[in-house]
């Protein structure tokens, strides 16, 4: 997939922008605070329906304005497409903004954009994928699987809703201090919870087994060594090494549902006292290891970096396998933090059909990128960003 054109109106610090970007690699060069990340945010928004920086849509409206518009022309493996997202804030300044999303002039829900396009973003914060808490790694899996299948999007949404409902009932009961009681409502929610949770598990386990292979290969390429690399899905309720079928209509979730049902029953009294759901996908983790070393706690900085790069590359490949489209890969300010060897090996590991966007404040980096590239940067488009405007730089 390739973004060929970007058009912005009143998006962040861009009053107006219209830029053609039909290149395999697009480098955005500019000092800090000029709008490089804002542009990647607009692209990610157009391709996935959400920002990687904020959950508040109106934050992206240019200050003092009443709405933004983002339009992308995208060349996909299955044909060209145009996407537009337009947001209009309420006149009184309060409440949620109104948003309209269209693909080829047909209105769609924002979350359905993931069925048309895909994007993978990598920012300095992505390092928390290894160093941060379990939440970061669950989000990684949820985002990846949401882009890969509407089935997952559907069950994730259902599951999040019913988990909140279930927690609410338990919380009220715990606050009242009455102890465990029969609740028809809770049983109904528990039923939906069990099914959605088990379906999420099935997909997550299956994705991890796929990612593990791709990530191990990428890790070794990036680290330039044969150091082992493993991923494991960790769950209190799912026995380790549970085999899961690779087919969409697998019934493995039924087994997973039984496991969860038994675990839930075992902690039922405690749930009524503590006022929350104590087992399920919301409590799991993804373990990232080299040999027997857990990279989260014991990895060196170099190992942790290689692990993040490897996971992101595995994500790119996973999405292609699942959707038949190479996602657009957005690298925000991350290359200058890598040592030159690791950077070069990382860039060489990116599959060649992938369109890559790179932002940097360092003109030096551009020179090394081009020197590393077998084509000497011939496929590169370099854009200079200054205060929400774009120009082609003069090359010396
Ligand atoms: N909603 C907004 N309206 C106008 N300007 C904004 C908005 N949100 C952020 N900015 C401005 O955008 C600039 C940051 O742009 P950013 O893309 O993060 O810079 P960088 O080039 O360092 O990546 C800052 O100057 C900030 O004040
Ligand atoms: Mg930035």
Task: Tell me what the structure shows.
With 396 residues, the protein is an alpha/beta fold. The chain has a domain at 131-324: Up-down Bundle (Glutathione S-transferase Yfyf (Class Pi), Chain A, domain 2), CATH 1.20.1050.90. It contains 11 helices and 15 strands. Strands 2-1-4-5-6-7 form a 6-stranded antiparallel sheet, with helices on one face. A hairpin with a 2-residue loop joins strand 10 (285-290) and strand 11 (293-294). The protein is globular, with a radius of gyration of 23 Å. The two termini are 31 Å apart. The model has no long low-confidence stretch (mean pLDDT 91). The chain binds adenosine-5'-diphosphate and magnesium ion. Adenosine-5'-diphosphate is lined by residues 12-13, 30, 32-38, 59-63.
In a nutshell, what does this entry contain?
42% of the residues lie in helices and 22% in strands. The chain has a domain at 131-324: Glutathione S-transferase Yfyf (Class Pi), Chain A, domain 2, CATH 1.20.1050.90.
